[in-house]
């Protein structure tokens, strides 16, 4: 069984993330979306809220599951017997950071591969942080995040 892990912060999941998840689910037997627990970075949503939002959005994809992890991604991969890390690439500006991370992960465990998927052109400008900026200043986030979570994002920002 070919298991891939799609790691990230997902604060919150965007349409760009959903696109990568959907396409990965067509390629692998099983895709685990893995939300990083990062004690140094306080996000908008708590980790369990992010997991819940992703579970809601990915409910139609039967071979996708969602978990959180802390520490090294490679250790999480080993514990799930997963051999492939999926990363989305939006622009050249993503490359240097992703390149370094892929090399470091390869150094830590050379049996694990990082595969890059080109983002869908319509989402190439999209990031969780830009979605938050737009929402904080009252802009419309329809088309940026899945319809199923628009109200969650707006309510969360209003409640802050
Ligand atoms: O959505 P993000 O914030 O760009 O995701 C980054 C993530 C979670 C993929 C990355 O920070 C990560 O894998 N962190 C776990 C720590 C780790 O394994 N570090 C070693 C590679 S340098």
Can you describe what's shown?
The protein has 6 helices and 5 strands, in the order βαβαβαβαβαα. The chain has one domain (3-157): Rossmann fold. It is 42% helix and 19% strand. The chain binds 4'-phosphopantetheine (PNS). 4'-phosphopantetheine binds at residues 7-9, 36, 72-74, 101, 104-105.
Text of the CATH class:
Alpha Beta
Report low-confidence residues grouped into runs of 5 or more.
none
Task: Give the distance, in angstroms, between the N- and C-terminal Cα atoms.
Answer: 43 Å
What number of domains? 1
Kindly report the spatial arrangement of strands forming the biggest sheet: 3-2-1-4-5
Which compounds are bound in this model?
4'-phosphopantetheine
Total helices: the number is 6
> Which structural class do the helices and strands define?
alpha/beta
Question: What is the name of the CATH architecture?
Answer: 3-Layer(aba) Sandwich
Total strands: 5
Determine the CATH topology: Rossmann fold
Please write the string of helix (H) and strand (E) elements. EHEHEHEHEHH
